[in-house]
Design a protein that fits this description.
The chain is α+β, with helices and mostly antiparallel strands. The chain has one domain. It has 2 helices and 9 strands. It has a 5-stranded antiparallel sheet, with helices on one face. It has a 4-stranded antiparallel sheet with strand order 2-7-8-9, with helices on one face. The longest helix is centred in the first third of the chain and has 55 residues. It is rod-shaped. The mean pLDDT is 87.
Length: 187
Protein backbone atom coordinates (compact mmCIF):
# COMPACT_ATOMS: atom_id res chain seq x y z
CA UNK A 1 0.00 0.00 0.00
CA UNK A 2 1.48 3.36 -1.03
CA UNK A 3 2.28 5.84 1.68
CA UNK A 4 0.49 9.20 1.65
CA UNK A 5 1.74 12.41 3.36
CA UNK A 6 4.98 13.19 5.13
CA UNK A 7 6.66 11.30 7.89
CA UNK A 8 7.28 12.95 11.24
CA UNK A 9 10.96 13.62 10.41
CA UNK A 10 10.05 15.17 7.06
CA UNK A 11 7.48 17.42 8.77
CA UNK A 12 10.03 18.60 11.33
CA UNK A 13 12.56 19.40 8.59
CA UNK A 14 9.91 21.31 6.59
CA UNK A 15 8.86 23.22 9.72
CA UNK A 16 12.49 24.15 10.49
CA UNK A 17 13.08 25.38 6.93
CA UNK A 18 9.84 27.39 6.95
CA UNK A 19 10.59 29.01 10.31
CA UNK A 20 14.12 29.92 9.18
CA UNK A 21 12.79 31.54 6.02
CA UNK A 22 10.07 33.46 7.90
CA UNK A 23 12.61 34.70 10.46
CA UNK A 24 14.90 35.92 7.68
CA UNK A 25 12.00 37.69 5.95
CA UNK A 26 10.89 39.43 9.16
CA UNK A 27 14.46 40.53 10.00
CA UNK A 28 14.89 41.95 6.49
CA UNK A 29 11.53 43.72 6.75
CA UNK A 30 12.46 45.22 10.13
CA UNK A 31 15.82 46.46 8.82
CA UNK A 32 14.18 48.00 5.76
CA UNK A 33 11.62 49.86 7.92
CA UNK A 34 14.40 51.20 10.16
CA UNK A 35 16.51 52.25 7.18
CA UNK A 36 13.50 54.00 5.65
CA UNK A 37 12.89 55.90 8.90
CA UNK A 38 16.54 56.97 9.11
CA UNK A 39 16.56 58.08 5.47
CA UNK A 40 13.41 60.16 5.91
CA UNK A 41 14.82 61.79 9.06
CA UNK A 42 18.03 62.72 7.23
CA UNK A 43 16.06 64.05 4.25
CA UNK A 44 13.89 66.09 6.59
CA UNK A 45 16.96 67.54 8.31
CA UNK A 46 18.49 68.37 4.92
CA UNK A 47 15.34 70.21 3.86
CA UNK A 48 15.09 72.15 7.11
CA UNK A 49 18.78 73.12 6.95
CA UNK A 50 18.56 74.27 3.35
CA UNK A 51 15.41 76.30 4.02
CA UNK A 52 16.99 77.92 7.09
CA UNK A 53 20.14 78.76 5.12
CA UNK A 54 18.05 80.27 2.31
CA UNK A 55 16.13 82.49 4.76
CA UNK A 56 19.32 83.66 6.47
CA UNK A 57 20.92 84.51 3.12
CA UNK A 58 17.80 86.46 2.13
CA UNK A 59 18.01 88.47 5.37
CA UNK A 60 21.67 89.26 4.66
CA UNK A 61 21.04 90.19 1.02
CA UNK A 62 18.27 92.61 1.95
CA UNK A 63 19.82 93.88 5.20
CA UNK A 64 21.96 96.91 5.99
CA UNK A 65 24.30 98.24 8.72
CA UNK A 66 25.89 94.92 9.63
CA UNK A 67 27.90 94.07 12.74
CA UNK A 68 30.05 93.10 14.52
CA UNK A 69 32.53 95.57 13.14
CA UNK A 70 36.22 94.76 12.72
CA UNK A 71 38.58 95.81 15.52
CA UNK A 72 40.67 97.88 13.15
CA UNK A 73 39.40 100.13 10.42
CA UNK A 74 41.51 99.00 7.49
CA UNK A 75 40.88 98.71 3.78
CA UNK A 76 39.91 95.03 4.08
CA UNK A 77 39.07 93.20 7.30
CA UNK A 78 37.62 89.79 8.16
CA UNK A 79 35.59 89.12 11.31
CA UNK A 80 34.71 85.61 12.47
CA UNK A 81 31.85 85.58 14.95
CA UNK A 82 29.08 83.58 16.62
CA UNK A 83 26.55 86.23 15.58
CA UNK A 84 25.72 88.74 12.88
CA UNK A 85 23.62 91.81 13.62
CA UNK A 86 21.85 93.97 11.03
CA UNK A 87 18.79 95.99 10.14
CA UNK A 88 16.27 94.08 8.03
CA UNK A 89 14.58 95.66 5.02
CA UNK A 90 11.62 96.67 7.23
CA UNK A 91 13.92 98.58 9.62
CA UNK A 92 13.82 95.91 12.35
CA UNK A 93 17.12 95.34 14.19
CA UNK A 94 17.91 91.59 14.09
CA UNK A 95 20.65 89.23 15.13
CA UNK A 96 21.43 85.73 13.89
CA UNK A 97 23.16 84.07 16.84
CA UNK A 98 24.74 80.68 17.47
CA UNK A 99 24.56 79.50 21.10
CA UNK A 100 27.23 76.78 21.61
CA UNK A 101 25.86 75.44 24.93
CA UNK A 102 22.47 74.74 23.34
CA UNK A 103 23.88 73.75 19.93
CA UNK A 104 21.24 75.99 18.42
CA UNK A 105 20.92 78.90 16.01
CA UNK A 106 18.53 81.73 16.93
CA UNK A 107 16.98 84.72 15.19
CA UNK A 108 16.77 87.54 17.73
CA UNK A 109 14.53 90.53 17.03
CA UNK A 110 15.55 93.60 19.02
CA UNK A 111 12.97 96.27 19.91
CA UNK A 112 14.55 98.96 22.05
CA UNK A 113 15.99 97.02 24.98
CA UNK A 114 13.80 93.94 24.53
CA UNK A 115 14.99 90.87 22.68
CA UNK A 116 12.66 88.27 21.21
CA UNK A 117 14.57 85.08 20.31
CA UNK A 118 13.18 82.47 17.90
CA UNK A 119 14.81 79.08 17.41
CA UNK A 120 15.92 78.57 13.81
CA UNK A 121 17.90 75.33 13.93
CA UNK A 122 18.93 72.72 16.51
CA UNK A 123 21.84 70.29 16.40
CA UNK A 124 24.35 72.86 15.16
CA UNK A 125 27.70 71.49 16.38
CA UNK A 126 30.25 73.76 14.65
CA UNK A 127 33.05 71.18 14.94
CA UNK A 128 34.95 69.58 12.08
CA UNK A 129 36.20 65.98 11.94
CA UNK A 130 39.31 66.92 13.98
CA UNK A 131 37.06 68.60 16.62
CA UNK A 132 38.25 72.11 15.68
CA UNK A 133 35.78 74.96 16.22
CA UNK A 134 34.26 76.45 13.05
CA UNK A 135 32.89 80.00 13.47
CA UNK A 136 29.40 80.10 11.92
CA UNK A 137 29.69 83.64 10.52
CA UNK A 138 32.58 85.16 8.56
CA UNK A 139 32.13 88.81 7.62
CA UNK A 140 34.37 90.45 5.02
CA UNK A 141 34.49 94.23 5.26
CA UNK A 142 35.75 96.70 2.66
CA UNK A 143 36.40 100.39 3.22
CA UNK A 144 36.16 100.16 6.99
CA UNK A 145 32.69 99.15 8.17
CA UNK A 146 31.06 98.41 4.81
CA UNK A 147 30.15 94.69 4.64
CA UNK A 148 31.30 93.18 1.36
CA UNK A 149 30.34 89.53 1.90
CA UNK A 150 28.94 87.37 4.70
CA UNK A 151 29.65 83.64 4.77
CA UNK A 152 27.57 81.22 6.82
CA UNK A 153 29.20 77.89 7.69
CA UNK A 154 26.96 75.44 9.60
CA UNK A 155 27.64 71.89 10.73
CA UNK A 156 24.42 70.10 11.71
CA UNK A 157 23.87 66.66 13.21
CA UNK A 158 20.37 65.30 12.49
CA UNK A 159 18.20 64.57 15.50
CA UNK A 160 17.63 60.92 14.75
CA UNK A 161 16.07 58.74 17.40
CA UNK A 162 16.89 55.50 15.65
CA UNK A 163 20.15 53.97 14.53
CA UNK A 164 21.29 50.57 13.38
CA UNK A 165 24.36 48.61 14.39
CA UNK A 166 25.35 48.16 10.76
CA UNK A 167 25.57 51.95 10.31
CA UNK A 168 28.57 52.24 12.63
CA UNK A 169 29.17 54.78 15.35
CA UNK A 170 29.81 57.85 13.23
CA UNK A 171 26.85 60.26 13.12
CA UNK A 172 25.65 61.58 9.80
CA UNK A 173 26.72 65.24 9.60
CA UNK A 174 25.41 67.91 7.25
CA UNK A 175 27.73 70.82 6.46
CA UNK A 176 26.28 73.86 4.72
CA UNK A 177 28.43 76.75 3.51
CA UNK A 178 27.00 79.74 1.64
CA UNK A 179 27.90 83.37 1.03
CA UNK A 180 25.80 86.43 0.33
CA UNK A 181 26.55 90.00 -0.67
CA UNK A 182 24.19 92.68 0.63
CA UNK A 183 22.31 94.18 -2.30
CA UNK A 184 23.25 97.68 -1.21
CA UNK A 185 26.90 96.73 -1.83
CA UNK A 186 26.31 94.86 -5.09
CA UNK A 187 24.68 97.71 -7.01
Amino acid sequence: MPRRGFSLVEMLIALAITSTLLTAVFVALDVSFRAYQKTTEEASTHTICRLTMHRMLTLIRTGRDFGPFPNTISANAVVESDFIEFYASNGQLMRLEYVPNEQALYLVKINGGEEDASLLLQGVTQRDSENNYIPPFTLEYRKGTQLYRATIDLTVVPDDNLSLQIEGNEPFVIRLVASAVPRGQAY
